[in-house]
Amino acid sequence: MKNIKFLVLGIFFAIVLSKSQAISWYRFYEMFRFESFHMFGIIGSAVVISAIIMQLFKSGKIKDVNGNKIVPKPKQKGVVRTLVGGTFFGLGWGISGACAAPIFVILGFKSLPALVLLIGALLGAFIYGILSKKLPH
Question: Whole-model pTM?
Fold first, then answer.
């Protein structure tokens, strides 16, 4: 019962994703062809909101469920790793027509295509898990 707020937040997020058409392959197609601002607006809004929330984390105004301050770990920087990771992410996004985040929302609307996406995402995560010790981190 303690975590019901997270379930409600997840349902709200799923409704926002579906109503904003952020689960539509056609919207991704438009974005990658630079035909519409729709998805760029959604992604830009998410970046701005995330930056605000990160500042709230860093200032200690948002705490974890136990009341402890959340301290983000510094990330290693690297142009090559960013380009390689972004290329793989973008290729998967462009080929599948879907972002990894709303797979479960898509599953609620279109079962078979979302099931293929989910299997692909799980397979990708599994392969990364096998190769992660050999990759530069």
Answer: 0.61
